[in-house]
Amino acid sequence: LYVEPPLADGAEIALDKDQTNHLVNVLRRTPGDNCVVFNGRDGAFLAEIVQVAKKLVSLRLIERTTEQTPANDLWFGFAPIKRLDYEIQKATEMGAGMIQPVITRHVQNARINPDKLKAHAIEAAQQCEVLSVPDIAPETSFEKLVTGWTDSHGDRILVFCDEAAASASPVETLTRLKGKRLGLLIGPEGGFSEEERERLLGLDFVVPISLGPRILRADTATVAALALIQAVVGD
Ligand code: SAM
User: Fold this and answer.
1) Which of 47, 66, 85 is the last residue in one of the domains?
2) Closest ligand 1 atom, CA of 215?
3) Structural domain boundaries, residue 44
4) Is residue 87 within 6 Å of ligand 1 at its C-beta?
5) Quick one: CA dihedral 99, 122, 92, 189, positive or negative?
6) Is residue 2 assigned to a domain?
7) Is the CB of 88 under 6 A from ligand 1?
8) Per-residue pLDDT tens for 143-156?
9) Closest CA to 37 of 136, 27, 99
10) CA-CA 20 to 30 A from 14: which of 7, 98, 109, 220?
11) Phi-psi domain of 142 (left: phi exceeds 0; alpha: psi -120 through 50; beta: other)
12) Is residue 75 in contact with ligand 1, taking CB distance under 6 Å?
């Protein structure tokens, strides 16, 4: 269960309405039962339900069961598609450390609610016991991203998934990038515009990767690209 407050042995914490609902009505827990909580910073704790009063649960933390895992260093940028829950969920499961919507020319869904993105990430982290919930960065434009990349991301290499631009095999390309900090950019359903592709290909911190000859949906490409990156250079 994801909670906001700091976690420490013996601390008591109160759950909010949604978490109470999840614990009591979905998981059917009652006072005296145990559950595991995490907050993305202090590891995971075994907790005991002390009471359910006025429809709110309070928990007492018993002991830390897992140390906090270090935050993942992989930046994942995506041009928002109509349904965002799947992409955020998969990016969280597959170890993205920062997630950022990038508004490109052919984006169909430019109304992004960062709180919803965070909620999707928390839900995915809860389900998969990922202790470090990715940060959700405010949306940015394609232009701002590429012009400000080296200032804000230092020496991080931006891997841009594009079916036509890559010359070497993806495994070869990623093996060459082992040890470097990486970012991954996936385009929208309509793809990157010709101008955007040319722009990316002309930048020395950008490396194109192909996921094969088939045109994949953006959410499928996200999963395939993250799986590839984690398999070749992940730790
Ligand atoms: N009609 C678009 C085009 O031709 O560019 C297709 C875009 S595809 C549905 C959505 C995004 O998924 C692309 O912008 C790219 O980032 C990624 N993608 C899809 N298939 C891919 C592949 N085979 N290799 C690399 N990236 C791919």
Assistant:
1) 66
2) 20
3) 12-66
4) no
5) negative
6) no
7) no
8) 999 999 999 999 99
9) 27
10) 98
11) alpha
12) no
Atom 2 of ligand 1, residue of closest alpha carbon = 191
Confidence at residue 54, expressed as pLDDT on a 0 to 100 scale: 72
* Residue 204 counted as domain residue: yes
For residue 163 the two structure tokens come to 């079916």
**Alpha-carbon distance 89 to 119, whole Å?**
10
Confirm or reject: Cβ of 217 under 6 Å from ligand 1: yes
pLDDT-based confidence at 168, cuts 50/70/90?
confident
34-86 pLDDT per residue, tens? 999 999 899 999 999 998 887 789 999 999 999 998 888 999 999 999 889 99
Protein residue whose Cα sits closest to atom 7 of ligand 1:
191
Judge whether 189 lies within some domain.
yes
Q: Are residues 62 and 149 in the same domain?
A: no
Instruction: Give every CB contact of residue 194 below 8 A, 6+ residues apart in sequence.
Output: none
CATH of the domain at 212: 3.40.1280.10
> In the Cβ-directed half-sphere of 235, how many Cα atoms lie within 13 Å?
11
Tens of pLDDT, residue by residue over 106-161, are 998 767 899 999 999 999 998 888 898 999 999 999 999 999 999 999 999 999 99
Can you tell me whether residue 184 is helix, strand or coil? strand
How many domains, in total, are found in the chain?
Answer: 2
